[in-house]
Specification:
globular; about 110 residues; about 0% helix
């Protein structure tokens, strides 16, 4: 299993960013997949996940601002982040559970003016 995350960067408050996670090594359409994040000095937290049927869930702090589409043709899951806030600053990790937790390498998102 490999999860390759990309798309992080520096963005101003109120801006948008889209993260991508390219997955390989398993049947993508058969598993839920999601995103975690870890802010400086804090524990890693679940941000969002999407099921095989397209249902999704979000942590309360991002609900209404973030969406998590998945593209089975590209074996890729995205995290579309809108109306970003400084408290969204973190390293974002793509996540999959397949008998155990798998993590991508992380991509840094910095929200600052």
């Amino acid at each position: 299993v490999q999860l390759q995350a990309s798309g992080g960067g520096l963005v101003q408050p109120g801006g948008s960013l889209r993260l991508s996670c390219a997955a390989s090594g398993f049947i993508f359409d058969d598993y839920a997949i999601g995103w975690f994040r870890q802010a400086p000095g804090k524990e890693r937290e679940a941000v969002s996940y999407i099921s095989t049927g397209g249902g999704s869930a979000y942590v309360g702090s991002v609900r209404g601002r973030f969406t998590i589409p998945r593209d089975g043709a590209k074996n890729t899951v995205y995290l579309q982040m809108n109306r970003l806030k400084p408290e969204d600053t973190a390293v974002y990790y793509c996540w999959l559970y397949l008998y155990r937790n798998y993590w991508g390498q992380g991509t840094l998102v910095t929200v600052s003016s």
